[in-house]
Amino acid sequence: MRTALVIGTGLIGTSAALALAGRGVDVYLVDHDAERARTAAALGAGTDEEPEGRVDLAVVAVPPAHVATTLADAMRAGVARAYLDVASVKGSPRRDLEALGVDLTAYIGTHPMAGKERSGPLAATADLFEGRPWVLTPTRDTDTEVLNLALELVALCKAVPVVMDADAHDKAVALVSHTPQLISSMVAARLEDADDTAVRLCGQGIRDVTRIAASDPRMWVEILSANPGPVADVLAGVAADLDETVRALRALQSSDESKRQDGAEGIEDVLRRGNAGRVRVPGKHGTAPTAYEIVAVLISDQPGELARIFADAGQAGVNIEDVRIEHATGQQAGLVQLMVDPAAAPLLTAALRERGWSIRQ
User: Fold this and answer.
1) I need a labelling partner for 83 at 20 to 30 A (CA). Which of 41, 143, 252, 357 fits?
2) Is residue 301 assigned to a domain?
3) What is the pLDDT of residue 152?
4) How many domains does the chain have?
5) What is the pLDDT of residues 23-51, one digit of tens each?
6) CATH number (domain holding residue 12)
7) SS3 label, residue 49
8) Longest dimension (CA), the chain
9) Where's the ACT domain (predicted)?
10) Contacts from 231-237 at CB under 8 Å and sequence distance 24+?
11) Same domain, 301 and 178
């Protein structure tokens, strides 16, 4: 691949353009908002000038509702040898293209499983896709050259290719992406009218659950409008669990010992099923999640503190597997939770104490 046209310079389009440009591909940028294309170009994602001729690959990075018409226009204009989109749903754009009578041999649907709560070109990074799954949904009509160019794009973005059927993909993302967004927003919505005293008690748990609730509502309306059935199916199952959990909690209030016991068993059941599901979520490098030991360190809110603690851990020869930061409400301090291999926890604790860090049990 020597040339690429990125249509849509939001988070995903600009991130892909940055990755391609960084690997020596000549990238051309187009957006219905010319200012966004200029911003992406200024970030080093390519040029907002028109290509002189046909490019190797056109990457359509527009909202799901506009994917089919944007692709059809580009394909009829013959702007590229191959075309793909990066929308978060795959079945409906393909069916819309079929309805438009477009030749699908030059097209493949794709979906990089990466994103942020923030949108737009200024949120883009060249490493957004590194190590993340990038779904490809070829059909029997997809030309081999098109599939190869899509695989090259994935490789240049340092992502991991995953081949799936389009409708199977849509059911999967309904479970692992779209439903979590809605549930996160529903929990965060409880905070809107909550008492200030309650909100001041927010800790890491509520921060984890509501992190993605900061996402752009307009963008998510477009995504969910393209995949409503599978998401509704998953939510129906969640709603059934919620009903059972509410009944179990009400039973715990009963004066009847037998009902309280039933309620406790109902709560334990949903928590245990949650444990079983969480175990299936891939951990580091796509393997089964590891039970890490947490070394909690109190740090001040000063520039360079995190860099210093990572450097001290490195000097101790300990690899930090994951990290969380819990800010202390109303104070210029926080608690850093360093997740390490259990065997390394005593060594790290001793080394950090020796270097003056305050360790919390």
Assistant:
1) 41
2) yes
3) 97
4) 3
5) 999 999 999 999 999 999 999 999 999 99
6) 3.40.50.720
7) coil
8) 79
9) 294-361
10) 231/174, 231/178, 231/179, 231/182, 233/171, 233/174, 234/174, 234/175, 234/178, 234/179, 235/179, 235/182
11) no
Residue 244 CA, chain-centre distance (Å), reads 30
- Dig out the tokens for 206 from the structure: 């509520």
CATH code of the domain in which 263 resides: 1.10.3660.10
pTM: 0.75
Residues 159-209 pLDDT 10s: 999 999 999 999 999 999 999 999 999 999 999 999 999 998 888 788 889
Give me the helices (H) in the chain, please: 11-22, 34-42, 64-77, 91-99, 144-156, 166-173, 179-189, 196-199, 204-210, 217-225, 228-252, 257-279, 305-315, 345-354
Asked whether the beta carbons of 48 and 161 are under 8 A apart, the reply is no
Dihedral of CA atoms 46, 51, 57, 61 in degrees, nearest 10, equals 60
At which of 220, 244, 279 does a domain end? 279
Classify residue 285: in a domain, yes or no.
Answer: no
Count Cα neighbours of 256 within 13 Å in the Cβ-side half-sphere. Answer: 7
pLDDT per position as a tens digit, 77-99: 999 999 999 999 999 999 999 99
